[in-house]
TrEMBL record:
Taxonomic lineage of the native organism: Bacteria, Candidatus Magasanikiibacteriota
CDD domains (UniProt xref): Glyco_tranf_GTA_type (cd00761)
Species name: Candidatus Magasanikbacteria bacterium RIFOXYB1_FULL_40_15
Classification via InterPro entries: Glyco_trans_2-like, Glycosyltransf_2, Nucleotide-diphossugar_trans
A Pfam family assignment: Glycos_transf_2
Domain (Glycosyltransferase 2-like) ranges: 5-118
SUPFAM superfamilies cross-referenced by the UniProt entry: Nucleotide-diphospho-sugar transferases (SSF53448)
Name of this protein: Glycosyltransferase 2-like domain-containing protein
Length: 235
C-alpha cells in the first residue's frame, strides 16, 4: 500500500480542523501520515491537538503567516508519502475517499492525480471528466485531489487566488493529467473567507457585477484570474 501524506494548512479554525482530523480517523485507507502546517494561528495548533486522540502519525509545523500556498509547499517538503493530498482544515471526507482515489490511480497509471465532486455546505459542486481544453477555459477541479508525489510541481506562492487552477495548468503543461471520480466524496464547511468568499455565478454577470458590495469582489476575481491566464498564455 502506498503511503498517503495528508497535508493540512491551517490558520485558526481549530474547531473545523478537529472535525477534519476525525474524518481522517474514519478513513478505510490506513497507511497515512498527516502534516499540519500552522500558518501563524492566534492559538498554537500544537497545544490544542493531541495525536493520541486520532490514532495516526501527525506532524505539526508552525510558521509565521505566509498564506495557504506557502503552507502547502512547506507541508509537502516535510511529507514522505508517494501520494499526497492537500486537505483544507474545513474538509470532511467520506470514509472511502482516500481508498477510492488511490484505487483509481492504480487502475489509471497515465493519470497524475484523482479528483471528485464535493459539497460546499448544501450546494453540490460538480467537477467533470478531465478535458484539457475545458480546463484551460476555467477551473473545475478543487485543490483536494490525490497527487503522485513525483508529479507535484509546487504551488505558486505569489498568487492570492486561483492557486488550484494554476497548479492543474502547470501540470497540464508538463503533460500531467487527472482522472475524475464522479462521486461526492467530501464536504467543505462554509465559513467566512476561503471558499465561502465565492460569489454565486450570476454575480459576475450584468447588471449584478456592478452593484455595491459585489463590484469590488468581481474586480478582484477578474484581476486575479487574468494573472493566471497571462502566466499560462491563455487568451
Amino acid at each position: 500500500m502506498h503511503l498517503i501524506s495528508i497535508i493540512i494548512p491551517v490558520y485558526n479554525h481549530l474547531a473545523d480542523l478537529k472535525k477534519a482530523l476525525y474524518s481522517i480517523k474514519k478513513q478505510s485507507y490506513k497507511n497515512i501520515e498527516v502534516v499540519i502546517v500552522d500558518d501563524g494561528s492566534e492559538v498554537e495548533v500544537a497545544g490544542e491537538i493531541n495525536p493520541r486522540d486520532f490514532g495516526f502519525n501527525i506532524l505539526i509545523h508552525r510558521q509565521e503567516n505566509k498564506g495557504a500556498p506557502a503552507a502547502r509547499n512547506k507541508g509537502f517538503e516535510l511529507s514522505k508519502g508517494e501520494l499526497v493530498i492537500f486537505w483544507d482544515a474545513d474538509v470532511i471526507a467520506a470514509p472511502e475517499m482516500l481508498s477510492k482515489m488511490q484505487n483509481v490511480l492504480i487502475v489509471h497509471p497515465e493519470a497524475s492525480y484523482a479528483y471528485c465532486d464535493f459539497y460546499y455546505g448544501k450546494k453540490q459542486m460538480k467537477a467533470q471528466k478531465f478535458d484539457a481544453e475545458k480546463l484551460r477555459e476555467n477551473n473545475y477541479i478543487m485543490t483536494t485531489g490525490l497527487i503522485r508525489r513525483e508529479d507535484f510541481p509546487g504551488f505558486d506562492e505569489s498568487l492570492k487566488r486561483w492557486q488550484d487552477w494554476d497548479l492543474w495548468l502547470t501540470m497540464l503543461e508538463k503533460n500531467k493529467i487527472g482522472i475524475y471520480i464522479p462521486e461526492f466524496l467530501f464536504f467543505a464547511i462554509p465559513h467566512k473567507g476561503g471558499i465561502s468568499g465565492w460569489l454565486p455565478s450570476f454575480a459576475y454577470k450584468k447588471p449584478w457585477r456592478w452593484l455595491p458590495g459585489i463590484s469590488g469582489k468581481v474586480k478582484e476575481y477578474d484581476a486575479t484570474k487574468r494573472i493566471v491566464m497571462e502566466k499560462h498564455h491563455i487568451t
